[in-house]
């Protein structure tokens, strides 16, 4: 059979497989290699059981004569014995028929090999042996025993069985014959002379005349005559003869007979047939145009997906052409190996944008291909050279650098997604609020819009938008987009719970509706539905998305490096050497994970396993840089060296900003004692630009009056979108970490901080714990920021009445730069006295003499409203002049505490708020700041208080050594060192007990006695 005709037939069957329209008829030949005889062999064997030789060739009549002579029981025994004398197990033909994914398998065989596979592999097929089985079938796919089986005593074999078949198998017959009207039928295991085949086809022709689908008969022969072929074509059957030219590359299974091998190769060829490659191969255009067109058309199928897993890429035609092995082995890190010499040579000869040997259209198509490959982390196209080694491998030779061929015509993209990625939030918000999905809007832009809403934390709007896109994509038959929309809707439903408490724009019922809807989305059912609308390769790609296997594999890679690299660091710290490509491989894994999600508009951020893996990778990269800061010994420098990370880049910066948990990373870097982590030169500029864009989102130039004004688009969005505000706060914290621990020039720091001042001026975050890393940045980089810019920040805080811990950090930084600094605070009335008492002192110390008095006056007013002994203690300790009435109220409060407690319990010892005011008060007495003559006249019951009022005269037998842990300040130590019984008691106790705290106190007492 000619290759062209053979492949045409195979393509029709493959198309039926892809559209769930294939029905397989399995005849006796399928079970031949399992020890079951063919129809003709069975008839010849039962001839030997007849009472006399007969001159009869009709197989049905021969079987009928056997029945008439032997009776039903002996007749059945003879047939079963003849059929199953040499019975084995199911063979590769049985298995591969299931691998064709037929809608149904219909067999005229009596054996149970197909049932065994269904049971062993848990396949979703229901077995129909008799009519009554049809209504009770649990699965959509059926295995129909058309001629029954022995268990149900309904085998169809003798003449009367065939004559009465319609009467005894009405439902089964009607169902099977109906399949010929709209399914593609493939007969396997039947010879051209098979009586079962002829009878069935004649019946179909009688019922449907010429209106049935053409069927196909797989034959292992390649020498069937033209007249016989024509005979079967008139019956509606196309015979697919064996084609050596098409099947010469198929490998032998070595598990079957010679005929079984030939049939298996045919079925394997059908199973693996690439329709896309076949359609492309029919083109008659020139070699160069064909290669370019094939490449372009292959990747254009993934139009809505910018990042394709490399294992999928490697399997695509024409990249996979001439590959001997599994194409997964064609991926070597960021290199894709191709055995397609014409393709390799074409790309190698192509010089890029300025190449005059290629048309503009050819260059556009090639650039599209290179863009997709580079996005997918394929930077090189390679080929193998030389002979195979002992393991059968060949060396990778020449590699083509794709970046040398790629050109970027639009250096800046203004889509919403790229605008968000550039941190130009005010512009992104404007674009989002002006965009509408219509019949005329591009589906690509719609998808970008929906994903951008998700990135901005607009989960409710994103869900509603994906609902629109799903309907639109269905109408356009763009089922890949429809599936991704439903997939993302499902993910949104997981995250949206509880947001009604935070975002007042939406009620509980609004969000509950989405939660309920999302739970009803069956991604498995939707995935099954799209199978008949999308290309096989796109379907396999979407399977990667649905199953999450690709994402999980990358997360596992990251986790492995996270566990391995810290061990390498310890080895290096101990003087060992570690040389490998772990950081390069980790970088590739993280980049592929991030790009796969963002590049394909798949929701991944906010899901713990993904974020957790990326967070761990950030810490691992920090360790890589830390290794570079270590002093290496001679052997480490001159033997194998050490693996390290020389600098961070733009992508790693984005990871930190988008994924990092600020507190964790700040603590981690602090533990490593690292400062001035470097960016590479190019990334330094882009990072600086991104941070600048972030802060400039909050303000704009005032075109009419000069200066700057707040950007209402941004600030309003912050005020009403809770999720967006949380996103900005997280990114601000992470930017503060970068500014704190990464290297920037003084000019860059000043420029960024100047924009930061405007950001703070025009936004309203207030006093928030989330901004504590801003304090870290200011306290670390204050000298680079400079006095003027810090003073500007202080004035902004004064204007906004932000008197919090950040305000204090700014004050301290200003004092360090200028010891004569005076705070020109103008809103003393607005000061928040609820925060840390030491902050009040810090503010006081920076005020002018005139404002100090006013400040203390306000403090004392607040104290009347809610008396705070700790604040008074701090003010007295620092010799701040407070009102005598306040001081007397303080003494009176402590006296009351001393008198009202009869006994100090264990709970009291552990209650900081109970004992701390007492400890602070006697600290002031020890220091001579307070003189309290009334102490000895107080009615004290608690022994602890009697002791601390007068330890010199206290009954030493009642002394508790653990009281020293409570009163451990230096002023107490000085006093206790002069009291002999305390030292003696302490010495005796420590001889018998090991107590670290008391040991420290003891040595302090000894030191004071010596002094």
Question: What do you see in this structure?
Answer:
This protein is mainly alpha-helical and about 1000 residues long. Among the domains are: about 5-35 and about 90-270, Rossmann fold; about 35-85, no CATH class; about 275-405, no CATH class; about 415-545; about 865-940, no CATH class; about 950-1010, no CATH class. It contains 50 helices and 13 strands. The strands form 3 sheets. The chain has a 7-stranded parallel β-sheet, with helices on both faces. Strands 8-9-10-11 form a 4-stranded mixed β-sheet. A two-stranded antiparallel sheet has the order 12-13. Helix 3 (about 40-45) crosses helix 4 (about 60-85) and helix 5 (about 90-100) runs parallel beside helix 13 (about 260-270). The longest helix has 26 residues, at about 60-85. The termini are far apart.
- Assign the CATH architecture of the domain at 3-35 and 90-272: 3-Layer(aba) Sandwich
Shape, please? elongated
The neighbouring-strand order within the major sheet is 3-4-2-1-5-6-7
Which strand-content bin applies to the residues? Answer: 5-15%
**What is the count of β-strands?**
13
Outline the biggest β-sheet.
Answer: 7 strands, parallel
CATH class of the domain at 3-35 and 90-272: Alpha Beta
Radius of gyration in whole Å, from Cα?
Answer: 42 Å
**Quick check: average pLDDT?**
88
By DSSP (H or I, 4+ residues per run), the number of helices equals 50
- Helix/strand structural class: mainly alpha
The low-pLDDT segments are: none
Name the CATH superfamily classification of the domain at 3-35 and 90-272. TPP-binding domain
Query: What is the CATH third-level topology name of the domain at 3-35 and 90-272?
Result: Rossmann fold
Ends distance = 111 Å
Helix content, binned percent: 55-70%
């Amino acid at each position: 059979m000619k290759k062209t005709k053979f492949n045409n037939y195979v393509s029709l069957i493959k198309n039926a497989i892809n559209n769930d329209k294939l029905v397989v008829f399995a005849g006796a030949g399928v079970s031949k290699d399992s020890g079951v005889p063919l129809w003709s062999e069975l008839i010849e064997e039962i001839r030997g059981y007849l009472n006399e030789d007969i001159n009869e060739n009709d197989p049905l009549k021969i079987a009928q004569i056997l029945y008439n002579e032997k009776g039903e029981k002996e007749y059945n025994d003879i047939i079963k014995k003849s059929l199953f004398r040499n019975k084995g197990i199911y063979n590769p033909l049985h298995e591969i028929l299931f691998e064709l994914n037929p809608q149904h398998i219909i067999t005229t065989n009596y054996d149970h090999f197909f049932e065994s596979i269904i049971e062993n592999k848990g396949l979703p097929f229901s077995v129909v042996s008799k009519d009554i089985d049809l209504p009770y079938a649990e699965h959509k796919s059926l295995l129909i025993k058309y001629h029954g089986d022995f268990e149900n005593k309904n085998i169809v074999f003798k003449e009367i069985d065939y004559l009465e078949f319609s009467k005894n198998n009405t439902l089964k017959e009607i169902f099977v014959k109906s399949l010929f009207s709209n399914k593609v039928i493939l007969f396997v295991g039947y010879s051209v002379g098979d009586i079962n085949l002829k009878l069935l086809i004649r019946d179909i022709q009688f019922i449907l005349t010429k209106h049935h689908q053409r069927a196909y008969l797989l034959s292992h022969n390649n020498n069937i005559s033209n007249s016989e072929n024509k005979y079967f074509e008139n019956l509606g059957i196309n015979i697919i003869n064996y084609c050596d030219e098409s099947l010469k590359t198929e490998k032998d299974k070595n598990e079957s007979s010679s005929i079984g091998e030939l049939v298996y190769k045919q079925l394997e060829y059908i199973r693996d047939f690439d329709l896309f490659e076949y359609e492309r191969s029919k083109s008659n255009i020139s070699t160069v145009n064909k290669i370019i067109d094939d490449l372009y058309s292959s990747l254009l199928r993934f139009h809505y997906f910018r990042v394709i897993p490399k294992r999928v890429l490697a399997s695509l035609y024409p990249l996979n052409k001439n590959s001997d092995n599994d194409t997964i082995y064609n991926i070597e890190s960021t290199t894709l190996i191709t055995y397609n010499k014409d393709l390799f040579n074409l790309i190698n000869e192509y010089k890029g944008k300025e190449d005059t040997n290629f048309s503009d259209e050819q260059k556009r198509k090639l650039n599209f291909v290179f863009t997709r490959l580079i996005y997918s982390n394929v930077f090189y196209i390679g080929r193998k050279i030389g002979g195979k080694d002992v393991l059968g491998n060949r060396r990778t030779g020449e590699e083509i650098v794709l970046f040398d061929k790629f050109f970027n015509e639009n250096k800046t993209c203004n889509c919403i997604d790229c605008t968000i990625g550039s941190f130009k939030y005010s512009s992104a918000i404007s674009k989002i609020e002006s965009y509408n999905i219509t019949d005329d809007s591009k589906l690509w832009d719609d998808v970008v819009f929906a994903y951008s809403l998700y990135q901005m934390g607009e989960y409710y709007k994103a869900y509603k938008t994906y609902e629109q896109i799903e309907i639109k994509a269905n109408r356009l038959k763009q089922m890949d987009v429809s599936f991704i929309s439903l997939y993302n809707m499902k993910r949104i439903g997981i995250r949206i719970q509880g947001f009604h408490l935070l975002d007042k724009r939406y009620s509980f019922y609004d969000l509950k509706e989405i939660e309920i809807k999302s739970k009803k989305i069956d991604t498995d059912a939707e995935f099954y539905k799209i199978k008949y609308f999308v290309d096989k390769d796109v379907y396999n790609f979407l399977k990667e998305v649905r199953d999450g296997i690709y994402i999980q594999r990358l997360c596992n890679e990251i986790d492995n490096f996270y566990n391995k690299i810290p061990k390498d660091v310890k080895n290096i710290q101990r003087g060992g050497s570690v040389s490998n490509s772990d950081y390069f491989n980790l970088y590739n894994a993280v980049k592929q994970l991030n790009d796969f999600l963002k590049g394909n508009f798949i929701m991944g951020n906010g899901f713990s396993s993904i974020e957790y893996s990326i967070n761990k990778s950030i810490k691992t990269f920090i360790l890589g840089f830390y290794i570079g800061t270590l002093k290496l010994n001679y052997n480490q420098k001159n033997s194998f060296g050490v693996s390290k990370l020389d600098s961070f880049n733009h992508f790693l910066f984005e990871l930190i900003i988008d994924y990092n948990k600020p507190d964790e990373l700040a603590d981690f870097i602090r533990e490593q004692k690292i400062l001035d982590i470097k960016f590479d030169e190019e990334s330094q500029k882009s990072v600086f630009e991104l941070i600048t864009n972030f802060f400039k989102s909050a303000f704009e130039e005032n075109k009419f009056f000069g200066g700057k004004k707040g950007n209402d688009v941004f600030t309003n969005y912050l005020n009403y979108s809770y999720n967006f505000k949380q996103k900005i706060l997280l990114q601000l914290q992470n930017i503060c970490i970068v500014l704190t621990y990464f290297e920037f020039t003084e000019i860059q720091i000043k420029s960024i901080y100047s924009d930061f001042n405007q950001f703070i001026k025009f936004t309203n975050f207030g006093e928030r714990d989330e901004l504590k890393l801003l304090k870290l940045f200011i306290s670390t980089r204050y000298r680079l920021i400079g006095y003027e810019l810090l003073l500007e920040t202080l004035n902004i805080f004064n204007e906004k009445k932000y008197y919090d811990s950040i305000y204090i950090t700014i004050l301290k930084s200003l004092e360090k730069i200028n010891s004569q600094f005076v705070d020109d605070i103008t809103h003393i009335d607005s000061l928040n006295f609820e925060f840390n008492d030491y902050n009040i002192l810090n503010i006081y110390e920076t005020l002018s003499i005139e404002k100090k008095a006013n400040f203390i006056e306000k403090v004392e007013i607040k104290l009347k409203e809610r008396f705070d002994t700790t604040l008074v203690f701090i003010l007295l300790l620092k010799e701040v002049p407070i009102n005598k009435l306040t001081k007397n109220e303080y003494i009176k409060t402590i006296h009351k505490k001393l008198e009202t407690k009869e006994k100090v319990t264990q709970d009291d010892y552990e209650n900081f708020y109970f004992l701390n005011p007492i400890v602070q008060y006697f600290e002031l007495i020890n220091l001579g700041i307070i003189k309290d003559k009334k102490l000895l006249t107080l009615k004290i019951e608690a022994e602890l208080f009697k002791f601390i009022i007068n330890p010199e005269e206290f009954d030493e037998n009642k002394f508790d050594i653990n009281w020293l842990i409570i009163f451990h300040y230096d002023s107490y130590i000085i006093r206790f060192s002069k009291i002999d019984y305390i030292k003696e008691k302490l010495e005796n106790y420590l001889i018998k007990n090991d107590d670290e705290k008391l040991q420290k106190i003891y040595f302090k007492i000894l030191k004071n006695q010596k002094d």
